[in-house]
Design a protein that fits this description.
Layout lengths: L1 E5 L6 H12 L3 E3 H11 L2 H12 L5 H12 L8 E4 L5 H10 L4 E6 L2 H9 L1 E3 L6 E3 L24 H15 L1 H8 L3 E5 L4 H13 L1
Parallel strand pairs: 1-3, 1-4, 2-3, 4-7
Antiparallel strand pairs: 5-6
The structure holds BIS(adenosine)-5'-pentaphosphate.
The site of BIS(adenosine)-5'-pentaphosphate has 36 residues, from α1, α2, α3, α6 and β6.
Length: about 210
């Protein structure tokens, strides 16, 4: 099963992609995680991507499309995959159409003000990418999964979050229509509690 998770920053794409990946044993492919790793490793791609990411802008299509093309060739994608954060522009979606057969697209729909609150409180383990929120019961700055020290992402400050939301509205939201026309769009209400959103997302996989 080849699936795309669409939705604004902070909608819960990573949270649910991680759970689906574990439950259905297919990889979660997050272009954001790949780019952050490239920055950490100091690669040429990382150096190019950093200024865009820190400013809440999209990394140029040519860079991200090359990353996705390369990643989708890996053996672990043969059984299927979840694309988390790719495509994000019509040009990326068109490039993806040439190399992949997408079964369906899950659009996780959440209002902007909910997102600002969510992302300001998000914490991430830099070692295993597990996502937390400071308001979740039992939250601890030590990752429950691998023992790493969780951090706040550099782009999770209010000004950059609002810039990311504006970029989403202009450049990524047109993909909702793109996939609706292709008959592949499933919309879930991402404002509900995590367990309820996950149950709705899972229904799409089990249908
Ligand atoms: P990326 O890493 O993809 O970030 P994003 O799309 O902005 O999405 P997020 O990771 O912020 O949010 P999410 O939807 O995964 O939410 P999460 O599950 O963490 O991209 C970062 C940057 O990389 C981009 O700005 C761009 O520069 C670049 N980039 C990446 N891909 C690119 C591409 N294709 N083209 C060009 N540039 C690209 O949840 C958020 C928080 O909410 C967490 O704390 C979570 O615990 C909590 N939460 C989740 N669901 C719920 C719920 N139902 N109720 C309460 N809390 C919840």
């Amino acid at each position: 099963m080849n699936v795309i998770f669409l939705g604004p920053p902070g909608a819960g794409k990573g949270t649910h992609a991680q759970k689906i990946s574990q439950e259905f044993s297919i990889p979660q492919i997050s272009t954001g995680d790949i780019l952050r790793q490239a920055i950490k490793d100091g690669t040429e791609v990382g150096l190019k991507a950093k200024e865009y990411m820190d400013a809440g802008k999209l990394v140029p299509d040519s860079v991200v499309i090359a990353i996705a093309e390369q990643r989708l060739k890996a053996d672990d994608c043969k059984k299927g995959y979840i694309l988390d954060g790719f495509p994000r522009t019509v040009a990326q979606a068109e490039a993806l159409d040439k190399i992949a057969d997408i079964d369906f697209v899950v659009d996780i729909d959440v209002d902007d003000e909910v997102i600002v609150k969510r992302l300001s409180g998000r914490r991430v383990c830099p070692d295993c990418q597990t996502v937390y929120h400071v308001d979740f019961e039992g939250y601890s700055p030590i990752c429950a999964k691998c023992g790493g020290n969780v951090i706040q992402r550099k782009d999770d400050n209010e000004d950059t979050i609002r810039e990311r939301l504006s970029v989403y509205a202009q450049q990524t939201a047109p993909l909702i229509d793109y996939y609706k026309k292709a008959g592949k769009l499933i919309v879930v209400d991402g404002a509900k509690p995590v367990s309820e959103v996950f149950a709705d997302v899972k229904k799409a996989f089990e249908a």
